[in-house]
Amino acid sequence: MRKLHFIEGNDVELLQNGAQFFPALISAINQAQHEVYLESYIFANDETAQSVQAALVQAAARGVQVRVVIDWIGSDRSVAIALTNRFIEQGVICRCFNPWFKRGLARTHRKICVVDRQIAIVGGLNIIDDCIADDGSGIALPFPRWDFAVTVTGPLVAHVHLEVESQWRKLGKLGLRTRLALMKHLRADAKVAGKQITAAALVVRDNLRNRATIQRAYLQALGMARSRAILVTPYFAPGRKFRRALVSAATRGVDVVLLLGVGQFALQDAVSQSFYPKLLAAGVRIVEYGKTQLHAKVGVIDEDWATVGSSNFDGLSLFVNHEANIVIRDKTFAASLAHELEMGIADGTEIFAEDVHKKAWYKRAWYGTAYLIYRGLMRIVTFGHYG
Which parts of the sequence belong to the PLD phosphodiesterase domain (predicted)? Predict the structure, then answer.
């Protein structure tokens, strides 16, 4: 497997939930002097989103070049169109990702902001009030949605900027020759970055040059894990390689803990539970988080490997959508994130093998059926790459 290209000398700060994320995001936008790139899967129309929108508009009014990318599906088609038009009227250039599925099924699920090429914010939080369910139901959550992001300053920001800029340019009108030149430029930049000593890396997934990069990052880390691995995701339905890596780590003595979101989508929960018997038998610990909506896509492996980003452990994130994670090699950061994850584990409910065996036969049959349905759909969508 190809090694990640890490860059040293970065300052990475953990942000938890909207209470920390939105003030950091708005502060960065308010300090912008030259340019702002913002990419989000969901850009809602609630009070929180309107505060971000106001900051972007104010930045544009003082001469900052503001470019926004929102997903046509994630932000809801009608909302996305209305927001795009409103932004343009107010001096913010906004583009929708893949309207009417003109470029296939992929969505941009990335959550990235880069300001003045000096600060980047990457993580799992969309532009939406984190006390309201993000599935369109509008249901008030009992506690703020549990999620994380990071702010990054240092040389890695240049690489993040290159990614969002290239995404922006690809959404415009580019000829084939220009697109090929852009891809070559991105590959060249990554090679230069890779000459430096490891500290932090941007890991993206797309359907061209980085089809399996995020999965490979996890597989490499799990393959080298020595003592523990805490992995968190709201949607758990990885392919066979990922599941084998979890089992392999657990069987050689690594304390593997999966903290999973439950209760949002019945089919997704059923697919996840179809994997429980084999994972539990191998020694993988499974904890279901039900305190509020879990939206975090994070992990800590051993004492010095951590990741925060947008990629779930499911077929769509690992094989279809555009995603972005930051991988950090730093003991202090990993310890800080691990502390938060251990608190999340304490708030969850651990599932044991006997719990699975006590399930009614028809429920267990439904879990298996749900997986077969999901696998069939994913194989069609991913042209057979999902296993």
Answer: 104-131, 290-317
